[in-house]
Amino acid sequence: MNIEEFLYGVVKSSVESLYGALDGEQLQIQKTRKEFEGDYTLVVFPLLRRSRKSPEATAAEVGEYLVANCSEISGFNVVKGFLNLSLGVGFWAQRFAEIYGDDNFGTAPATGRTIMIEYSSPNTNKPLHLGHIRNNLLGYSVAQILKANGHNIIKVNLVNDRGIHICKSMLAWKLYGNGETPESSGMKGDHLVGKYYVEFDKHYKEQIKELVAQGKSEDEAKKTAPVMLAAQEMLRKWEAKDPEVYALWETMNGWVYDGFDVTYKALGVDFDKVYYESQTYLLGKSLVEEGLAKGIFFRKEDNSVWIDLTADGLDQKLLLRGDGTSVYMTQDLGTAFRRFEDNKLDDMIYVVGNEQNYHFQVLKLILKKLGYDWSDNIYHLSYGMVELPEGKMKSREGTVVDADDLIADMVSTAREMSKELGKLDGCSDEEADAVSTMVGLGALKYFILKVDPKKTMLFDPRESIDFNGNTGPFIQYTHARICSILRKAKDAGIDRSLQCGDILPVETELIKTLCDYPNVVAAAGESFAPSFIANYAYELAKKFNGYYHDYSILREENTAICAMRLRLAESVAKVLKSAMKLLGIDVPDRM
């Protein structure tokens, strides 16, 4: 049952019985604020012109009518123009029975909408790092949440596999690599290619320094450094399909893809489809030619193509360089066109860092000017950067936190801390490995996803692996604790199928929290905010642990009450597991 819809119906019926049919007045019903007694609150001010009474008298009259005529409502109180309604224990017991019997609780019916969500979008010149981890975890979780809201979801990755940055790694390997391969070096392919991206930057800076010493300005030195000119020439050759350059590009990208696959598997994220910039930039070029023919774009004397957006409060935007090579905007135009044409999308969500806010503003505007109305259905899920206590990271200087290293460190730290706290006592080595991996990754994912995506966040690995407080391991441990209770009940032969006994107020509060889950999933889907799910799971786990501390389950002598408490514990575990799954986090049965 949808509680809000039920209440709207009974309140509307009661108000109309008292004051006649409503004529355009909107009933405002919301959850009662925590500082007041009650479950839901009716705002009575819109009803005053009908009741012709004071707010307090109107609220009291409606409250008395509801209590007299609706068995589900057990009481009310009035605070000025607000009527706070309390739902009876029997009502919550029925909701509890519905939750317990619903294996798909929290999942909405199909909407028929198709939404594509793009995340990861790595460059093939370096391994994935901590920033990519936030991107992947956020994108995957939002996809899971939208799927739970009944939408058809297509998860995609756009690999930025061409461009000057790729040529920098390729050139450095050609000049300084001596034929090194992943096999000969023992390095993951993405790490090896990333090594040469750093190598390029080192030689580039040395050449700039030399040219400045010879009397050139720094800006001129940056443009004329031999290694940069060679990288630009390599890009031109790549676009001309030069056999030697193209073969090297395919080889080195292959190394990177093999490395990425290992990292994605370790993170527990996947994709339904992978797009490659090398396959979409030409379509983007054709859209630029279309825009030129329509007079939407213009060509400068150096042969470069631009769009003037000053009338829209922006600036001029480059679409094609003078040598004919494309830029990010070129391929993004082509990719967007291909996706909407091929998949008949209702919405397209890009999960990209907030440094690209302007880029997506321009992308939507250009597509709109080209006549593609579906551009209104493009959404940029902008997120803040991840910083460490030591400060910001820079890929080209090799100061990033590598994703593979971080994952390994999280698992190792989880094992160390779990062992110290006795969480692995009695576990075999295999079980300890599985639990440590689950806890380490759960800590990492939860710590990142509990923060509002728009906020820049500080990541502290050790703080994230805390078995107390608002952390993934705390929720995982709560699930494992409930599973242990249920195992012990089964071993003791306790029958959970008995008619449930009386429900205490504290148990009603737990049931109310369980009832909130579908609304939280819906709100998280509307706002693209996994943090809603994370913080809900923490509140539910915290409430259960407080309840379990104060009330016995297995030692309860009344068999009907014991059965009810076991079902309640089982329902909490079910919802915790469901919520954590939406975050891409597994929960252990033993810990």
In CATH, the topology of the largest domain is named Rossmann fold
Q: How helix-rich are the residues, as a percent range?
A: 55-70%
Strand content: 5-15%
Question: Overall 3D geometry?
Answer: globular
Count of individual domains: 3
Termini separation (Å)? 35 Å
SS class: alpha/beta
Low-confidence stretches: 392-398
Q: At the first level of CATH, what is the class of the largest domain? A: Alpha Beta
Number of helices: 21
CATH superfamily of the largest domain: HUPs
Tell me what the CATH architecture of the largest domain is: 3-Layer(aba) Sandwich
The neighbouring-strand order within the major sheet is: 7-6-5-11-12
Key features of this structure:
591 residues, single chain, Gyrase A, domain 2, Rossmann fold, alpha/beta, five-stranded parallel sheet, four-stranded antiparallel sheet, Isoleucyl-tRNA Synthetase, Domain 1, 3 domains
Description:
- With 591 residues, the protein is α/β, with parallel strands linked by helices.
- It has three domains: 3-87, Arginyl tRNA synthetase N-terminal domain (Gyrase A, domain 2); 119-387, Rossmann fold (3-Layer(aba) Sandwich), CATH 3.40.50; 404-582, Isoleucyl-tRNA Synthetase, Domain 1 (Orthogonal Bundle), CATH 1.10.730.10.
- Helix content is 56%, strand content 11%.
- It has helices at 3-19, 48-51, 55-69, 89-100, 130-148, 164-176, 182-185, 189-213, 218-224, 226-239, 243-267, 277-293, 328-343, 357-369, 403-420, 429-449, 461-464, 472-491, 505-527, 530-550, 559-582, and strands at 28-31, 40-43, 73-79, 82-87, 114-118, 152-159, 273-276, 298-299, 305-308, 316-320, 347-353, 378-383, 386-387, 457-458.
- A five-stranded parallel β-sheet has the order 7-6-5-11-12, with helices on both faces. Strands 1-2-4-3 form a four-stranded antiparallel β-sheet.
- Strand 9 and strand 10 form a beta hairpin.
- Helix 6 (164-176) packs across helix 10 (226-239), helix 8 crosses helix 11 (243-267) and helix 12 packs across helix 13.
- The longest helix is centred in the middle third of the chain and has 25 residues, at 189-213.
- Mean pLDDT is 92; it is low at 392-398.
